[in-house]
């Protein structure tokens, strides 16, 4: 069934390199990641190879569900590491245990953040998730004028600039704002099929109110008065002298707002690694450098405020949480839910 699903998606099933019969440790670490977290995974792989003068880990893009399926298939099968834009579910962890895939180490690595922005020299906006859904979703009310959205003071005609659907900022808004605001609406809550609900809630309007498929830098360059644009946190921070965030239910995309969950347009990222393939684990070093990679990811060079991921625009967890993450990773504490 997995083979059929991955063939339909156009994604090859993940296969770890074959191991030599001499049981010599494998030299190349394998990482599975979704398209939305590929930039993060590539940055981690490149930093690790440079820091340890080691072979660069092989990063393969595959849907997160498929990555976890392969990761949990058996102790000696699938990728060594999964980078995911969500936490492994109870069902996926249960599948790992039933397959006797061995202990798993979980490493929280920060938060991806999406920000609706306006020009700093224009009026500020504070919108609810319901208002955002109506503004951008195909099944919203599609107001043509800002007055129809309840914010007449912002401008005349509604104009929202959006990146492509495969952009992480777009994906965060679809997942954390549109789908959440939509799920209890008439006609949606009665849908039994989750895929149908996701399509109905996550589709974007295609009329004059939306300008889509724009690069994030292009959005900031062409953003005019009376318009709203969607960008990631890195682009917002780079140009925050000219941009101001749209508040969502009164919340700004601050570190405290993101980490506490008060600011809704953010999602945590996680790394999962197989402890049984690490040295001193029960696998006694089946993959060379895997434990070094896990400890490197949990350190400040990657998840510190000035680390690799911080420079990509992720918001990092507070220092005390990062210390706990580092200690748990170094001790190979098994992931549990």
TrEMBL record:
Record-linked InterPro entries: PBP_domain, Phosphate_ABC_transporter
Keyword check for Ribonucleoprotein: no
Domain PBP: from-to ranges: 22-300
Keyword presence, Membrane: no
Domain of life: Bacteria
Keyword terms, alphabetized: Signal
Protein name (record): PBP domain-containing protein
Organism: Skermanella stibiiresistens SB22
